[in-house]
Amino acid sequence: MQQVVAHKFGGSSLANAERIAHVAALLQSRQDENQIVIVSALQGVTDQLIGLATAAADNADWEPAFDALVQRHREVTEALLGDGHARTWDRLQPTLDNAHDLLRGIALLRVVPEPVLALLSGLGEVLSATLLTGLLQQQGRSAQLLDARDVLVVRPGETFVAVDWDTSRARLAQWRERHAGFPIIVTGFVARDPDNHPTTLGRNGSDYSASIFGALFDAAEIHIWTDVDGVLSADPRLVPDAFPLPRLSYEEAFELAYFGAKVIHPQTMAPATERGLPLIIRNTFKPEHPGTRIERESAPEPPVKGLSTIDALSLITIEGAGMIGVPGTAERVFGALRASGISVVMISQGSSEHSICFVVRLPEAARAQRIIEEAFDRELADGRIQRVHRQDDTTVLAIVGDGMAGQPGLAARLFNAVGRAQVNIRAIAQGASERNISIAIAQADATRALRAVHAGFYLSAHTLSIGLIGPGNVATFRRAPRPVCAGCSGWSAMG
Length: 495
Known about the structure:
Blueprint: E1 5-9, H1 17-29, E2 35-39, H2 45-57, H3 63-81, H4 85-109, H5 114-121, H6 123-138, E3 144-146, E4 154-155, E5 162-163, H7 165-178, E6 184-187, E7 190-192, E8 198-200, H8 205-216, E9 221-226, E10 247-249, H9 250-258, H10 270-275, E11 279-283, E12 292-295, E13 306-319, H11 329-339, E14 346-349, E15 355-361, H12 365-375, H13 377-381, E16 387-400, H14 410-420, E17 425-430, E18 436-442, H15 446-456, E19 476-479, E20 491-494
Parallel strand pairs: 1-2, 1-9, 2-6, 3-6, 9-11, 10-12
Antiparallel strand pairs: 4-5, 7-8, 11-12, 13-15, 13-16, 14-15, 16-18, 17-18, 19-20
């Protein structure tokens, strides 16, 4: 039996009838027959549903916006299915009626109960899955719709919902007894809690759904279809020379995602990484492009795979001679922050123990500073700690790559590139894995630093002037495609 392959399509891939038809054609053209297809809502629909709930609770006139949402789905259905649209529209109507009833209830209550919002905000995926299923069936495929709420059970976690794998597997097995065949169109983003109430997986929930259902179906691989060519070496809006990375390890993808790269949320990858399932980031609109393959092992070269930045941060520094040699200082700092629910982006401490600095997100900066001042009020009063100060205009820039471990000179190249760009480094951090070196810099310098470092590691194109002296036809040159290894030339000589 052919192995299952999971495909996930986001809202930008399902924005209108033309794009949904393109997705159906893409699926039809592929070799993998045993497909599970996880879908987001049509582009913007989830936010519209949440906005409608807010408007209804505020006693605003929400009906016209809801009517526009219904009309959008009607127009997509008619454009997608033509004369045969009535059957699919009849399947959509109960979901739209359910949404209308929920909004009327919210308007009466003048409040949005959390379970109601969870149910309402997940209806967009039911609508999009119904549309794609209807199109595939009209094209002669035995497509089946799997409402994830019939199978997937999750419970709240500390930072992310956790899957009840045993219950979910048992429910999927029961569902499969009644529904044989492929493709299976799955509603992303939605699930049920242990009390059988509808819930959602939170932001990035459809990516998480893809990873979960890839694991539940024992898929060979998971394709995440987006509107970019894969994971890029840097943000292309800031670095014009950024290019798609052909291969990353899970750890490299985690690091790049944590530091702001638009890859896939690290926690959403967990079910796939635990089982060693490859994740392939692909472009829906350029399906011929191979994209980026994320798996256990990375390509050995180049050592630095990519760069990423996080903006809107604050660097908070605690300084004082009274900290030197005093055990437990760092524990007090980060214990106080943890107790207040403040996440730390980066930590740096000098070996002299005279200072500790850490980076937090800007909206939490003032509260973090106040918490530290309260935790060390006695030391501040008697002068053992001189001050707690913060710099709000901070960006963290990270270079990432499994091949950095044991490679001498990489930090020097980073600092040289930043120095040549006339950018001051405020703080530095590197883990023992050597997979990541991070620097804190002024936000105003971030783009200049990012471009300089990208070029400094031969990730950007370089112009090289060559002069040849000799009799006759010494050589001819042709431009080569982008080099596949760091430091390779973009030109090749032909004698």
